[in-house]
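Hey,

The postdoc asked me to send both predictions to you directly instead of through the lab channel. I've kept everything plain text so nothing gets mangled by the mail client. Protein one:
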Amino acid sequence: MELLLLLPICFPILAGIALLLKKEFGNRRALLVYVGTALLVTGALAFGAIFAGGDGVTLFWLTETLPVSFKIDVLGGFFASVVSIAWILAGFFSFEYMRHETREKRFFGYYLLVYGVLLGLCFSGNLITMYLFYEFMTLTSMPLVLHTQTREAVMAGLRYLFFSFAGAYMALFGIYFIHRYATTLSFTAGGVIPADALREHSALFLIVTMLMLVGFGVKAGMFPLHAWLPIAHPVAPGPASAVLSGVIVKGGVLAIIRVVYQIIGADFLRGTWVQGVWMALALLTVFMGSMLAYGEPVIKKRLAYSTVSQVSYILFGLAALQPQALSGALLHTAAHAFIKVGLFLCAGAIIYKTGCKRVDELKGLGKGMPVLLWCYTILSLGLIGIPPASGFVSKWNLAVGALKSGIPVFSWLGPVVLLVSALLTAGYLLPVSMQGFLPGEGYDASRFQKKEPSLMMLLPLLVFSALTVLIGLWPGGLTELFTSFVAQAL
């Protein structure tokens, strides 16, 4: 049982390292078979470990009181499932996409390596283990950002590294302080700090919590340390942009959930200035990201600004400290991951087949790439929150949860900002579909003739589109999964 828990973490890491160390791989077909097999085996191991459960395992001890341990709970299993589905589908999409990129072996080596690190982050059993894998996530994903090695990519990678480390060090300061007073660093519903310590040092604990929220919020793209995201994501290859924007940012979300609900405790934060500042930052990021996306002409950068906005939907739901809002935040985590990975893959396929990078160049796209544009449209409707797509259910729960919270100002301001952001989302996503299917007069009808991507690229897009609709029609399975976690956390 212990081996089953460690296998999905170690296997892709070792497979990635072996690929990076190997000088030559023979031919491209052998490389793709190797990577595809590694992805599928890792996914099978991950889901096997999730369903098997178990008591967890301690790998080794950093000190006498700091174990590196792993354990699968509801939250970790949910995040690992989302990561695996998105990572495997984007990986298969990249088999075709990476034909026009150089250094494929290196790309796939790091791609496998990051997959294992993300599973380690999801399966972490305590705060120190999570922090170690959080840092590994930054170090191993940075090569995906600077893969093209252009000056723009290198500068974006350095900014990604600087912002991520700055946020991580803020969080590390909090871990030092928490370790001084906590009874354990293992994730425990309701928190791990004795009530008398919280009362005696309440002011310091609030400051520490705010630092950790801002620090881990860097990876989630929360204002004020969000500027790395719209620069780093667009310069990476299409599949890397997709997983960075749809999956990697969720590492920050997972870390915040762990700290707030399983280390500090929601009861301590409820009604404090930290909750107010956190909700204000989240709403500001929601609105700001939508406005910046609305005015951005480059499609990948537009989607990156959209991620800045949409991930803060999740953070707002977490900050409300209310059961329905928390459930909506978790549901939006899955919905946004599948939708945003799908949208970035659509953008990548467009760039791969046509070379067009700006929205104003896509007029008439539906004439030559109808299947791709329908996938883009379905995913866009999901992100906007139009029923029956998944985004509607998650945003409904976020808005209703905010109203039920009764928090002064934010109980009504939150739903208003979410609604305005949804309108802006429609404004920056749907014009691509409208002009693609209904270009009107004055466009070159031959530009997109017979440009539909191959089946290897279309299948992941079709799966993500189907997931967007299915989760929206039948969200009950996921919300029931969250029930036990939400009940214990609040």
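Protein two:
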Amino acid sequence: MTKILWVEKQIDYEPQGIMSMSAVLKEAGHDVKLAICAQEDPIELAKKYRPDIVGYSTMTGSQHYYFELNRAIKENLNKPVMSIFGGPHPTFFPEMIHEAGVDGVCVGEGEGPVLDLANALNNGGFHPDLPNWWFKVDGGEVVKNPVRPLTRNLGSLPKPDRELVYSKHIVTRRSPIKHFMASRGCPYSCTYCFNHAWYQIYTREKRGYQFPVDWVIQEVQWVRERYPLEQVVFLDDLFIIFVDWLEEFAEKFPKEVGLPFFANVRSNLLTPEKVALLKKAGANTVSMGIEAGNDRLRNDLLKRKMSRETIIEAGQMLDDAGINLTATNILALPTATIEDDIETMRLNALAKVKYSHAFLFQPYPATELGEFTKQNGHMVGSFEDIGAIAWDSSILVRSESEKNQMENLQRWFAVGVQFPWLIPVIRKLIKMPRNKVTDFTYWWIHKLFKGWAITRRVHPIKITPRIIWTNARHFLQMEA
């Protein structure tokens, strides 16, 4: 039996990848634990547990935190331990294997690779030739292995190990909103997304695999039988790609589960037929990317390939069906102006968006838009200056005044969408200088409006004093 310790800085919602890998490992007889740094000392837990493997799932911007923590854990253990890194950043930047203390980097999907590694260590026959892995071996040499095919039969995977998270994280366990995956992959190549880089690694793979409908239903039922559950959230990039799957889901889910759910859609894939199926299945809220109101930014820079009319029509169809719409948007894009961002706010209002998420653009490396930003001199500093939080500040080159307005607009964006008649007032408010007073005031206005919209529209659930207290404590403990 190999002992594996996963380390997470904090839990926002269920970490799908870690839960899936844990289920595969436990099914094979290995032992798995989770350390949540926000609520316990991971070094002390590691010293007590004495793992054989310590694993980290990292996004770009969070890797330095985990590098430092990993070195501290290894220094404090009185036994050899293999440290492994997976997730988006290691997948696209496996060269991080050269970082001090990093022993292995997993490129791509992790279930099969981590099981191979655990089995090899357990049998005492470890060789650094396992697919998907880059290993640092004696003398500092790096062994780089090719990737295996993606998991095509997703129904062959065990159900995610939710106990790993729920047994330790009270907020997620008690929450009536829980998160699931019904598919993997996306056929589109938006320039701000890692998706096109993913399919440069998996060159011959179909761009999207679906979990069987019955598998998804069984997982939801398992959770509902054991934990509070009023709203199901599907995290899939695109929930509505395959019509035949959606038809089966719309037939079975309301009969066998009957809970409202949230899913991600795309405006140019929405048809009256698909909207009717979503309504029949029980969707009360969906989200779609609008990203930019300006046609050049949306279609040339971001390669979204959709018109304003398509976005507005999709919003109207959903509104007519009684399905709430949320949207994601990217402010402070390279070559964009403050007027472009205000135009984005207006387009959200025309599409009848019930809550609009607005993020400040971050030029992530390995994305087409990130590389464009760097090569054309739009970025201050380097990729190393990107933080883990994507809505606090912009690192793009522009005047201090415009940068200030774009950062302030991010806090007022959802309010302006809901009340477009306030846009002239918002224009004046965003010109206020950023300081402790304006940051504090605008942050709270943004958070209070978001809290109201999420609980009343996006995820309408029964609010109890315990939920309010638990979520408020969690909210204050979360980074930024």
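Summary for protein two, as requested: The mean pLDDT is 92.

Thanks,
C.
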